[in-house]
Amino acid sequence: MKRLLLLGTAGALLSACASIEPVEPAADVVSADYPVVAAIDSANAADLDWRAVFVDPQLQQLVDIALDESRPLRLALLDAETARAQLRVQRASFFPMIGAAGSYSRSRSAPLPGFQDAGVVTQAQATVGVSAFELDLFGRLRAQSESAFQTYLAAGESAQAARITLSASVADAYVATLTAQERLALVEATAQDWRASQTLTQRLFEAGQADGTEVAAAEAQVRTAEADLEAARREAAVALNALVLVVGRPLPFELATPSSDASPVLTQLPAGLPSNLLTRRPDIRQAERALLASRADIRAARRAFLPSISLTGQYGYASNDLDNLFDGPEVWTFAPQITLPIFQGGRLQAQLDLAILRQNKAVASYELAIQQAFSEVADGLAARETFDRQIAAQRSAVEASQRRSALVETRYRAGATSRLELLDAQRQLYAGQQALLAAKAAQMSASIALYRALGGGPVAERIAPA
């Protein structure tokens, strides 16, 4: 029996001390030719408060409402608080559980043959003691506490990521709503102009200066504008509904369309150096915390192979008379216990294998978070470099189309050109104006995406360590 006990102890120690090399993220997670931003940027977008990026007062008010009303954000915050409570529960295992107990009993037993009746026996006892206090000699409880702590921090980073995502989603929906309203105004103005052009063509036809094909072309053009108008109204309503949904409740005011030159979003964000991503983005920090928690779980699983030492003790008084309980004799017990796992059907090894697999998964998630972060920033930087030039070129094209349309209309009124050329000029202007609206909206959306990709700003204070 002694030999079996020694063999079991040695096997447990060897299993617990087996070398488990920590899995590190791959060195080539991100390509070496990642586009690096010039260091002349003095600030990083993550240093900017979201109000400095979302500059429209209406948008700022809607973001404030969403941060208070959002159900998904509320769930993320509750998850963080749950992780904090679990951390407190785990940390409590470092302290002994001290309790007090009292008992009082009266009993009478049947007398044995040949013996005198013992009468009523009274027994009173009061004790205070420690129940099964585990001594963390091998660090199992410390590893479990570290895992709970990292899980708590990961939940906090998840809540911060939810805040940034929510604020960016509100900004995206707001930009989409304003763009839809601007497009609706453009289509209404275009339809009005084309109706006036149709009226002119009808008058020229009645005067014998235009034929029936020109009248039919003018009518088809107006009907196209009317169809576009209904589509624009539908898009504006859908965009507004989406904004209400992401805000969390009906809007407290009517949206006022800003001037065409004003942007509700700061489009020139300082990017900073890409290496800052590793310390800026909450999703990367969350993945890192999850990885650290998985490593702590491995340490706890390894130490489960080692002996567990616990202490139980009591101290108090006992008496045959309740009135004189604390004048009675002292009673105490001290019972240290050591428990060594010898055979559990492979449960401990399976737990260790599971912890290692979870760590491998955490490493893969961490690498994926880094890859996604750098890819999103690269896309945002590419957009930042091109949108200004695209919008400037498109604005010049619209101005040229406006001049052409005005000249062609003047020539058409004078009978110097055909309705076909006027139709082409008007359609070119209409398409150019819509393309300009789309480019401006895409630039604002790209700026919002870049702000989020760079880690966002201090939307709210990050969750503090417990």
Protein described:
By secondary structure, the chain is an alpha+beta fold. It has one domain: Outer membrane efflux proteins (OEP) (Up-down Bundle), CATH 1.20.1600. Helix content is 61%, strand content 11%. It has ten helices and four strands. It has helices at 2-16, 50-53, 57-69, 71-91, 140-206, 212-247, 277-280, 282-303, 347-413, 419-453; strands spanning 98-108, 120-135, 308-319, 330-339. A four-stranded antiparallel beta sheet has the order 1-2-3-4, with no helix packed on it. Helix 3 crosses helix 5 (140-206), helix 4 (71-91) packs antiparallel against helix 5 and helix 9 (347-413) packs antiparallel against helix 10. The longest helix has 67 residues, at 140-206. The chain is elongated. Residues 1-18 form the signal peptide. Keywords: Coiled coil, Lipoprotein, Membrane, Palmitate, Signal, Transmembrane, Transmembrane beta strand. InterPro entries: MdtP/NodT-like, OMP_efflux. GO terms for molecular function: efflux transmembrane transporter activity. Belongs to the outer membrane factor (OMF) (TC 1.B.17) family.
- For the record, give the distance between the C-alpha atoms at the N and C termini, rounded to a whole number: 48 Å
**What is the 3D form?**
elongated
Could you tell me the radius of gyration in angstroms? 38 Å
Write out the strand line-up for the largest beta sheet, numbering strands in chain order. 1-2-3-4
Structural class: alpha+beta
Helix share, percent: 55-70%
Instruction: Give the SSE order as H and E letters.
Output: HHHHEEHHHHEEHH
Tally of individual domains: 1
How confident is the prediction overall: mean pLDDT?
79
**CATH architecture grouping:** Up-down Bundle
Poorly predicted ranges (pLDDT <50, ≥5 residues)? 1-23, 36-43, 460-465
Largest sheet: 4 strands, antiparallel
* Total DSSP E strands: 4
